[in-house]
Amino acid sequence: MAENDVPPVAVTHGVVHYGDRAVLHGVDLRVETGQAVALLGANGSGKSTLIKSSLGLVRLTGGEAALFGTPVPRFRAWHRVGYVPQRLGAGSGVPATVREVVSAGRLSRRVLGLPARKRDRLIVERALEAVGLADRAKDPVTSLSGGQQQRTLIARALAAEPELLVLDEPTAGVDAASQEALAAVLSDRVADGATVLLVAHELGPLEPLIDRAVVLSHGRIVHDGPVPEPAGVHAEPGHVHVHPHAKEEERLWT
Ligand SMILES: Nc1ncnc2c1ncn2[C@@H]1O[C@H](COP(=O)(O)OP(=O)(O)OP(=O)(O)O)[C@@H](O)[C@H]1O
């Protein structure tokens, strides 16, 4: 299908400056339909900046970004995209319950003016269960820990069933059982044809789902291929990609 030739995410020669400081130095990232891509790298290597700039949340100072083939400044089909930031913005003291926040993810899918249908409610319940928050559905989000708030946002994005899911550190501060549940639900979404781009420090239970790893170091891509081993085995047979920054990359995993 021609549609499949259009990459959901394409950043071409992406450059980002914060003030005078360049934090992305001409990065190329193209994510194809149905791929599950992990963006890895040390703190401050530019992972969040790259995904934010791919969505137009951070302005590129060089290069361009397109979503589903449309340059981001002209992109309007936001219902096709689900984005989960690292944390709820500080001071977002909205007294909404967990279920209300997750239900908001269904809004773009609902027929305007009609009450939530049974299917919407079911999808919301499934999303809450997938992140292990079904028993907290009635609680205000503000009463949750940072990790639980993050999981609320993940459930909201899942409930919207977008074609492209972009998640910034979805497993940070999340217990092992919830990481497994998240991996299962993301696998389901990929099996349904969705595309996943996520930032992670450690993949853990997400690893089987990931079919491509992109490693950033100091604002540059230093690896693009299979998931690298956590430490120092880059030269072993089976490690497909060898690059000139192997030492640097090893440090990312310590
Ligand atoms: N709004 C901002 N203003 C100024 N500098 C910023 C801003 N956001 C990020 N930076 C800096 O840009 C660099 C890249 O940050 P970024 O958050 O993209 O890295 P990261 O790889 O996602 O890090 P982490 O793993 O800690 O989330 C860092 O040095 C960071 O301090």
TrEMBL record:
This is Zinc transport system ATP-binding protein. InterPro entries: AAA+_ATPase, ABC_transporter-like_ATP-bd, Metal_Ion_Import_ABC, P-loop_NTPase. It comes from Phytomonospora endophytica. Residues 245-254 have a biased composition (Basic and acidic residues). Transmembrane segments: none annotated. One of its GO terms (molecular function) is ATP binding. Residues 230-254 are annotated as: Disordered. Its EC number is 3.6.3.-. Residues 1-243 form the ABC transporter domain. Pfam families: ABC_tran. The keyword Nucleotidyltransferase does not apply. The keyword Secreted does not apply. Keywords: ATP-binding, Hydrolase, Nucleotide-binding, Transport. Belongs to the ABC transporter superfamily. Coiled coil: none annotated.
